[in-house]
């Protein structure tokens, strides 16, 4: 079985490669990576996968990657995935995510028309969600509140359009917040974990800087999420542009996420928190809690890793970094 994972150096993609290799020893994995990318997340995979240099916005580069891999399955996880960056660089976010996905689907239509394709959507597509609309289902109206959210709505609908127009086996996953080892430092939970580890090492005074603590998010351990992706890819059906959410179904107020991390510290000093205006977004999504009912109707899956273990493993990851 040949598998193509775009952006294999990324947080979720590297965990997906780990899971596939553990589940299927005969899998031949091809992973795309940008030439100048930081390869730390997938350094342990270097001799286990075939790496292909690829730029999503370069059509010839994408065509070459898919032609080289000749994949049976494609997991499209490469993206500009940091919401704050989409505010400062909306044009490049849209280009990378929308044009990049269009390029990949065209390449797949040309060289791998029968492959299973996962398009990674996001809970940020929902944007403005009212309390009475939770838990969110796949039928929830899309009201994105960031350029990133808008870009993911477009990639979501591109997946649907290609599936319907060309009878391609495309599944769109709208995944809610992910947590676990190797999470990028720019993401809030990982940033707090790194701040705590820096305090434990006495690099900084015992103060955590934060932004909005009132937002509520649905966290799933990345190792549970990639298990769901793999199980969905093994279903004997044409998904035909269907959408399915991957989430825990439990909401966590960001204030409680921060307090959980602080309570797990090894620091002998009492850690306080400090509001930082620079960490606020122009507009923030106040509430994102999903329903995994549809996912669990399709596959025999449920979250297995408790939230507190995910937080503890995230701290452990940063403690392992020099």
Overview features:
322 residues; alpha/beta; UDP-galactose 4-epimerase, domain 1; 2 domains; seven-stranded parallel sheet; four-stranded mixed sheet; 39% helix
Descriptive notes:
- The chain has about 325 residues and is α/β, with parallel strands linked by helices.
- It folds into 2 domains: about 1-180 and about 220-245, Rossmann fold; about 180-215 and about 250-290 and about 305-320, UDP-galactose 4-epimerase, domain 1 (Alpha-Beta Complex).
- It contains 10 helices and 13 strands.
- The longest helix has 22 residues, at about 90-110.
- The two termini are about 35 Å apart.
- The mean pLDDT is about 95.
In short:
This protein has 322 residues and is of the alpha/beta class.
